[in-house]
């Protein structure tokens, strides 16, 4: 059901990374800091086309996207005794920035994911790539508003046909903190993960609402 494209170019990725690895106090404290920058070009995507053509979509090369970010890893051993007991702490912090640099010629944007949130009202949510915007932006139709309040009809919110930016599904940053305790061959590990930011589409919430 996909129209082939004999003019497709292979995807290309260019990247570089720089970092610092510092260890001290007999390896009881270490810092690993890195920065990366990656550019993906000619990404291959499928775009919907008229069913009258006999196909459902076609493949194209979709432009250029940049991802850059930092990753920080800290390791600390606050306790290490001669009896064989030790306590290690590890912290990992990760933050990524993305940007759509170019869109395929002839396109101002492209939709690469979509879903219907409120089935009865037909409210739509789309993941749309637009030039000079971060990848991961979510646009939705939302609801009609009157004086800052949602407009209802027959007990249901009235959907709007105007797309608006709802947020980005990528987190602002992620981090994890791990603790490892060792005593004479016995290990106990405890890990905490944390994710800050990022919007989601909840089908369960929409049905419950």
Report on this structure.
The protein is mainly β and 209 residues long. It is built from one helix and 17 strands. Strands 2-3-6-7-16-17 form a six-stranded antiparallel β-sheet, with no helix packed on it. A four-stranded antiparallel β-sheet has the order 8-9-10-15, with no helix packed on it. The chain is extended.
Q: Can you tell me the residue ranges where pLDDT is under 50 for at least 5 consecutive residues?
A: none
Supply the number of helical segments: 1
Q: How far apart are the termini?
A: 36 Å
Strand element count: 17
* Secondary-structure element pattern, one letter each: EEEEEEEEEEEEEEEEEH
Estimated helix fraction: under 10%
Mean pLDDT across the residues is 86
**What's the story with the biggest beta sheet?**
6 strands, antiparallel
Task: Give the structural class.
Answer: mainly beta
Any idea what the shape is? extended
Q: Evaluate the radius of gyration.
A: 24 Å
List the SSEs and their pairings.
Blueprint: E1 2-3, E2 12-24, E3 29-41, E4 44-48, E5 57-61, E6 63-80, E7 85-103, E8 109-116, E9 124-130, E10 137-140, E11 145-146, E12 149-150, E13 152-153, E14 156-157, E15 164-168, E16 173-183, E17 186-196, H1 203-208
Parallel strand pairs: 1-5
Antiparallel strand pairs: 2-3, 3-6, 4-5, 6-7, 7-16, 8-9, 9-10, 10-15, 11-12, 13-14, 16-17
